[in-house]
Write a structure and sequence with these properties.
Length: 511
Amino acid sequence: MSNASFDIIIIGTGMGGGALAYALRESGARVLLLERGDFLPRERENWQVDAVFGQNRYKPAERWIAAADGSRFKPGVHYYVGGNTKVYGAALPRFRRRDFDALEHEGGTAPAWPIEYEDLEPYYNLAEELFFVHGEAGADPTEPPRSQPYPYPAMPHEPYMAELIDKLRAQGLQPYSLPMAVDLRAGGRCIRCATCDGFPCQVHAKGDAEICCVRPALASDDIELWTNTEARRILTDGSGKRVTAIEVERRGERLSVSADTIIVACGAVNSAILLLRSRGGHHSQGLANSSGLLGRNYMMHNNTAITAVAPLKTNPTVFQKTTAVNDYYFGDSDFAWPMGNIQALGKLQAGMLSAAKPGLPKPLLSAMARRSVDWWVMSEDLPDRENRVMAGDDGSVRVHWRPNNRVAHQQLIRRATAMMRAAGYPFVFSETLGIETNSHQCGTARFGHDPAASVLDPLCKAHDIDNLYVVDSSFFPSSTAMNPALTICAQALRVADHLQGRPLLQSALTA
């Protein structure tokens, strides 16, 4: 065991950890970033469908265990500098204002957050600027109020999609421009390719945590990055009230690294696993787990992919992911409860279908892909104590997840299907995804005011420990029905102000 010491250690370089490192780069604190993976290589396979979807080239070899039946599955996680943002779809919406309140669903209640939308609103502005978000205010019927416009104009729709959007408007719907983090600024790197959503970006034009946060942070002499370094256990002092060091494995060597403040940002599953694995002494049930809620209330959205096919019309669109529909987000006249969000996917390619449906003839799948419009239908997954992640004694990751709020999700699928049929797509295929589709994982260390009912306080500090923070989607009390990345970033920037002793920013919005 050798030792090193820092002011702050951040475990994880995804949206939460990366944003914190960026925000702390001029603080004067010596900051160590730990990443269990390496930099994702820029190589021709970045944009090859078979490499990315068929061979799962960028996913880890590990398998997690579905606790319900003991089966093993390949999780949707990526261990690289930048975390899952290296392959995300780059959609960065804000949560709705009502998402922060207690919200009744057909399947139960989404609890209120300990902060309000206005607490995050100024940090949403900063996060959108940091990730060069392109969007258009005023078209989304559920959008929250803004104190500033989007930093950059919305991505233009390609002609085929613009025509479809007109057809949706003719149905009385209000499709809007999806806020996107792609570099279409003047002189920007984006070439509007067909390999963005789900792919690494070979030209670094995607607004991911590596490009927007980690690389700029490393320009500071105070920020140090250790790659290929896995945090195995967090240690505390004799009182159990302060964390003191992290045991890590780095290139086959076991090290102990100490810090005044430790920030966990490994993703909702791995953050909970690390804290559970750090049990001992005053924390026999896991670090910061006096509430018994650590690892519980795991959420990951109800997700369905829809492929709508017009057999007599090909879709030449290259960059399809520019629009979304929120008309059903909080319900409609026929279903009073929230249903969720419908957003365009990156354009489906034949190899993606072949990877997902290996038993079907490739010529048929190719013909479908050339004639399809593809959507992601997303509904809220409600918190449930019994939906949880657990650390096996053998080092395994066990996940118990039973889907809920399915009635609302089925209602949204029906509306998305009817929407596309009315637009001239007679064949609509849907596939509801399961436990392995966990890119929106959240909730395993919820924040709140009451230490008996939450793991973290409203600034993501552990209730039980004076110098331990968790700043990734673990802190979410509810999953909402929007992509979580921008909210993770906004809260990370807010926590960074707190750590530096700065006054928290206040929204300029009025009630």
